Amino acid sequence: VQLQASGGGLVQAGGSLRLSCAASGRYFSVYVMGWFRQAPGKERELVAAITSGGSTYYAESVKGRFAISRDNAKNTVYLQMNSLKPEDTAVYYCAATNSVLGDLRPSVYNWWGQGTLVTVSS
Description:
By secondary structure, this protein is mainly β. It has strands spanning 2-6, 9-12, 17-24, 32-38, 45-50, 56-58, 66-71, 76-81, 90-97, 111-112, 116-121.
């Protein structure tokens, strides 16, 4: 699986962005897809994930503000980010795993996109 993330940019606090991650290769629909982020000096963290059936996980810091979705027909996963805060500033990565939704470790994600930078100004 090859992943290509897009949609990052500069936005003011309170604004919105939608990230997209297009996947190539077979069997996209069976993978758990996740969005991670990594801010300077911090560890990479799982922000949101979604199963093939649509079950989701969100980090506490983004609940109620971010929404993950997927379109299996288009081999694409999305991250809608609303009410953005300066602390959301990071490089965002999409990733795929054949592990389970509840495993939050980056190490279980087998395939990674290249990352897209989100900068939220105050």
